[in-house]
Amino acid sequence: MTPRLDAISIITADLAASLAFYRRLGLDIPDGAQSAPHVEVTLPGGQRLLWDTEEVIASFDPGWERPSGGGERVALAFACDSPQEVDSLYAELVDAGHTGHLKPWDAVWGQRYAVVLDPDGCGVSLFAASPAAK
Question: SS3 for 2?
Answer without folding.
Answer: coil
